[in-house]
């Protein structure tokens, strides 16, 4: 079994490695991790230190990305903002993937009434404009980074559920599952030990794309003033000042936006790369 | 066909009930009561008055009774009155705002499809050339651009730097006195940036999708046959392939409705456009529960109906389904 797994990953890695765009995405993602982990050493200034003498100063040798309306260094704030983005991205997607996987497995394995009920629930959830639902819940419970992560997770699991259900439906019919049932494995063991590992790889793709989506949503919420609240720096709330001072300070709008763009692009490329590497029909 | 449509319409009922149930649950997750919000600002409201308000909104009854009352009113299109100071019926508020959002989104959709279809076809017919690669890069960047940031950049260039376009609202001051042509020109200028922002979001995904369905169709046998007959590449692509490649887009149209409605919050807030998105944002910020519940339900219903229309038109457009599903 161990041999089979390592073989699978070796083939996967070989295919993934040859995809230059995917590798670029993976590299950027890795760099972002390093950057946010070491923000406290690398950042040139304290992200919250206010300096009345250098308010809204344009990019210069002292402040590469300029300063904001309170004289705080934009580069340092963006570096600390990377932490927030990654945290939100991963926790939200973690929640979405866990719910989606469990719903998909149960729905696909048991079929019948449970399946019908769960899938109708998925249909209903998909009818809501997700951004409305997120906005409603966050304003009702008060905005905080934890609420954002939970709500983005709770509104983003439906795609994963459908995906895992489809995989489970086909895996369920395979001979080795029948064999497992014959030797008396419990349902739980069959689902989690035998079906889950084989149904999980397509979830990696949606997870990677999901992180990108969650980062976009968080930044939009913070931009609207209902996400991560100042003074905690987040890419979205730096852009709020960018909007307020758009006539005098283009750097406040340009750099955080570019950070979002590059990060989201990297996760999308990574996700597409994983998809291509997993898909036997794609030849490289 | 008629049976299929009736079946689909009957299927809507449980889904609609589900929508109302989720909306109701979401709103009642709130800590404290809606009335608190309304009276918290006013220290003069005594205990008695508070009780009367609770009674007035039916909040003294158990939750399931409140739900039944609410759904009953909803069925008669009564969404209650807004908590805001104007205290108007929510239905009236939505009625005023909905046409703005819908017409903006329709213009955006037309633009999106108008651009995405040719882009997708070009990418598919020039597969693996520089053109295709260039389009792919554009698509990936398009996926990653936050729409509110795009709105900011446009505002900076066209509004602040070049001073060409107005950056907020739908009309200039004093537009009531403009002649028809001037009035429309003014409106058009106000719409350019919001429409660009609204359509850009899904342009990338749509052209990517168009490329892949087109590639799918081009690979089929009947296209090879058409080419073998000696038809020009133009005829093959635009007469034979395009029709089949366009079919799946109908379904996509239905799917894109929640995204469009949800996206309207962002560009309506940024450009100060008086539509549903802005109403929802203001309602949520001031905890105006009747407005929030009303828009949530109506937004989800619109999606349901959109999906139904998309499925039915798909069945009408595709003879394979029309005859098979009968």
Description:
Chain A has 13 helices and no strands. Chain A has 284 residues and is mainly α. Chain A has a single domain (14-40, 84-278), classed as Orthogonal Bundle (MetI-like fold), CATH 1.10.3720. In chain A, α1 (2-17) crosses α13, α8 (158-172) crosses α10 and α11 (201-223) packs parallel to α12. The radius of gyration of chain A is 22 Å and the shape is elongated. With 326 residues, chain B is mainly alpha-helical. In chain B, α1 (2-27) packs antiparallel against α12, α5 (90-125) packs across α8 (180-218) and α7 (147-161) packs across α10. The radius of gyration of chain B is 25 Å and the shape is globular. The relative contact order of chain B is 0.13. The interface between A and B is large, with 41 and 47 residues.
What is the compact description of this entry?
The complex is a heterodimer of chains A (284) and B (326). With 284 residues, chain A is an all-alpha fold.
List keywords for this structure.
heterodimer, A: 284 residues, mainly alpha, B: 326 residues, 13 helices, globular
| CATH fold field value of chain B | MetI-like fold
Overall pLDDT level of chain A? 87
Low-confidence stretches of chain A: none
The biggest beta sheet of chain B reads: none
User: In the CATH classification, which architecture of chain A applies?
Assistant: Orthogonal Bundle
Mean pLDDT of chain B: 84
Query: Which word captures the global form of chain B?
Result: globular
Q: Work out the radius of gyration of chain A.
A: 22 Å
Give the C-level CATH assignment of chain A. Mainly Alpha
Helix content, binned percent of chain A: over 70%
Number of domains of chain B: 1
Please indicate the percent range of residues of chain A in DSSP E strands (runs of 2 or more). under 5%
Enumerate how many helices of chain B there are, as a single number. Answer: 13
Give the full name of the CATH homologous superfamily of chain A: MetI-like
> What is the chain-wise order of helices and strands of chain A?
HHHHHHHHHHHHH
Q: What's the structural domain tally of chain A?
A: 1
Distance between the termini of chain A: 27 Å
Instruction: Say what oligomer this is.
Output: heterodimer
